[in-house]
Amino acid sequence: MKRRNFLTLSAGAAAGAALAACGNEGPGGSESGGGGSASYWSLSGEPGEPYRQAAIDRFNKANPDSKITPTFFQNDAYKQKIKTALGANQAPTLIWGWGGGGLKSYVEAGQVEDLTDFFAKDAALKGKLLPGSFGAATVDGKIYAMPVETVQPIVLYYNKKIFDQVGVSAPQTYGDILDLIPKFNAKGIAPFSLAGQSRWTNMMWLEFMLDRNAGSEVFDNVFAGKPGSWSDPAVLDMLTKVQDLVKANAFQKGFASTAADTNADQALLYTGKAAMMVHGSWSYGIQKANGGKFVPDGGLGWMNFPPIDGGKGDPSNTVGNPGQYLSISSKATAADKETAKKFFSSTLVDDEEKAGWVKSGGVPVIANSESLFTGDDAQFQKDMSAIAAGAKTFAQSWDQALSPTAAEVLLDNIAKLFQLQVSPQQWVDNMNGVIGK
Amino acid sequence: MTTLAPPVVRGQEPTRSRGGRSGSVLVWMVLPAFIMFVFFGIVPLLGVIVLSFATWNGITPEIELTGLTSWKAALTNPGLPNALWVTFLIMALSWLVQTPLSILLGTFMARQSRYRGFLAVFYFIPLLLSSAAIAITYKSLLDPNFGLGAGLGIEALNQDWLGQANLAIATLIFVVSWQFIPFHSLIYQGAVRQIPQSMYEAAQIDGAGRVRQFFNITLPQIKYTIITSSTLMVVGSLTFFDLIWVLTAGGPGDATRALAVQMYQLGFQASLMGPASAIAVILVLVGIGLSLLLRRIGGRADQSQMEGA
Predict the structure, then answer these.
(1) Is A415 in the B-facing interface, judged by CB distances under 8 Å?
(2) Residue A59's Cα: distance from chain center in Å?
(3) Are both A187 and A315 inside the same structural domain?
(4) Pair A47, A99 in one domain
(5) By C-alpha distance, which of A80, A109, A269 is closest to A184?
(6) Looking at the predicted structure, is the pLDDT value of residue A319 above 60?
């Protein structure tokens, strides 16, 4: 009796833990049958999803024999989902991603197809894409992904109506930003909107503050795996400045529980509850789609992150996504791979694709799109294009550039930094511990 | 997922009604559940134990056995003490909040026969909702900028519920209680209704009031139900993941990063499946240990508590 009770109890506890462990099981149904039917996973939501769907519809219509089936996921959930699927050999044929460190881990695991020859044979295709977009698709000199969609620098957005209402002008330097913070707080408006729960949102602040303070060399050293690279005094200075921002209430009340996946951070800006926001260029499309008349009425302003007084960084530098990336699963059948490659060389570089991404408010990775910047979003697109083209360094987002293991430690420490849970020195020590991992 | 965990532990009950009737029929009736349990409980558990002695990033085809490396990494992880502390804090607080309220509600529902059916259904509704749905709803309601407080203009509701360490834990306990009190009330309701009416009549003759009856008859009589319910609460609280993940994602900072959340972040975000599996094994061991401890405290459950009834 006693022993039996022990067994049932232990089994019960085990099942509980095992069930919790299987949290992110795929939905199944992603199996690709024969006859060139490729599955495709990507991100859901505005502004990208309608244009991703449109490209697939176009391809399926033009190629009745082969079929691409898309599934769309939320941004933060997708990052784990795709890894789980790869590990379980349930990966889609077409793997959407951000390139960089994540792609590198797929390559090391032998999960994605080497596309070097594919692009070598089709020079015309390679020529249609912005040359700068291939960097994050390249691992050890070989190309493993096709750059797609848009170039996305991160910029400083501001709500012009709120600036007029408070009677202040757009900041020209970091010092101006510091002066603006108490002015907005006095009016009960949050100076900055920040989706702190998502963590990579906080990271964008660190990326710019470090770059403007010290230039791009510090993170280059981290990326290269040089021991102790975070110990640069500029890093401590930057971290102290970030914590000073938190202490000065630069971010909205409850920023630590605001999640980017619900676009609550964008909503704070376009509803006028916050005056400014540092965010990727894709945010423009979200605000346009969700903000009613805010964007069409000229309520939204933007600029490259301003220089920090006395900082060594080139103020033209920017950070963000040089493109989005589609890889082909190495586990896919030959027919499916052919379908995917056909999709790459035809639909993804056609004029409708280019026009679609322009319409979404973005700057396409397809070259020579400037002539299309004529609609309502022309000014934004011209500015983004200029920032991307004029940047002395277009750095990749840190969490995408580093390995998943190092990125998780980075994001964890960034969240704690913004909670004032770690001091700048502790942050540096923690981060030095995972360099090169 | 966590909502599935409590019923599984109830497997202890059938052992009491063992023997007597035709045993072979019982075996056949147990078989489907047993097969499900082996495939979805035992097999993954064995997999997790193997993985905890391996190094795997989750995406390579090969899994490399590396002995105790992953265990060392998991046990020396600077986040572990905090995760343990948060897990036990959630366990203790959710037990402290849920148990008295569940007993009172259960006793209330067992006596007030006129509304009992209606209220029992009404109270049960939260348990029918998925944890993720509950978490999304509460997250929206509690948002300091767009939530209930801001919408209705009630300043007291307009706190940074999920953005401050202590408040976030308190909010989490509240949501957990809201979700699971109905279930435990139902258990207590059943237990209270099994107490023979003659005991209360005898107590009334002896001049005992309602409060005295509650403490001297109801509470001692539902002793084993309290042990069962506490086991479910305590072991169940180890597996809270979805609720925490959607509400706070373990934040702010690491204020609500319980072991289950730590396990997920290590495994699926940091791609360290070995150390994550080691944490899973720790969770299993802690769960078993706590279940046994509670049984020890409660004495032998198969003893009759009806003596003198």
Answers:
(1) yes
(2) 26
(3) yes
(4) yes
(5) A269
(6) yes
Question: A142-143 and A146-148: which strand pairing?
Answer: unpaired
Q: Interface pTM (ipTM) of the complex? A: 0.79
Residue type present at position A74: Q
B8·A12 Cβ contact <8 A: yes
Q: pTM for the whole thing?
A: 0.82
What is the dihedral angle through the alpha carbons of B136, B141, B143, B145, rounded to the nearest 10 degrees? 140
CB-nearest partner of B44 from A21, A106, A111: A21
Whether residue A229 has pLDDT greater than 80: yes
Instruction: Name residue A37's beta-bridge partners.
Output: A67
Domain count for chain B: 2
Sheet holding A324-328, edge to edge: A67-73, A37-43, A94-97, A324-328, A146-148
- A268 and A407 in a single domain? The answer is yes
Distance CA A322, CA B197 (A): 76
- Residue holding tokens 């930003």? A177
The pLDDT tens digits of the residues spanning A127-175 come to: 889 888 888 899 989 999 999 999 999 999 999 999 999 999 999 999 9
For the segment A107-122, the average pLDDT, to the nearest whole number, is 92
Looking at the structure, tell me whether residues A271 and A338 fall in a common domain: no
Residue A379 in domain: no
For tokens 């939320």, name the residue: A74
The residue of A7, A19, A105 whose CB has the most chain B CBs within 10 angstroms, and thus the best one to mutate to test that interface, is A19
Domain region containing B293: 41-76+271-301
Structurally, chain A folds into a number of domains equal to 2
**What secondary structure does DSSP assign to A145-173, as a single string?**
SEEESEEEEEEEEEEHHHHHHHT----SS
* Strands, E assignment, A166-227: 190-193
Residue A80: list chain B partners with CB under 8 A. Answer: 268-269
Residues A252 and A293 in one domain: yes
Per residue in B120-165, pLDDT (tens digit) is 788 788 888 999 999 999 999 988 888 888 788 787 777 888 888 8
Whether A262 is in a domain gets the answer yes
Burial class (CB in 10 A: 0-12, 13-18, 19+), A283: buried
CA nearest to A96, candidates A346, A286, A367, A340: A340
Q: Cβ of A87 under 8 Å from any chain B Cβ?
A: yes
B117 lies in the same domain as B207? yes
Range of the domain at A292: 152-320+397-432
pLDDT digits (tens, 9 = 90+) for B84-118: 999 999 999 999 999 999 999 888 888 766 767 77
Residue A3 lies in a domain: no
B109 and B254 assigned to the same domain: yes
Instruction: List the CATH number of the domain containing A165.
Output: 3.40.190.10
What CA–CA distance (Å, rounded) separates A402 from A410? 9
Mean pLDDT along residues B13-24: 54
Question: Two tokens at A350?
Answer: 């056609």
Q: What is the mean pLDDT of chain A?
A: 87
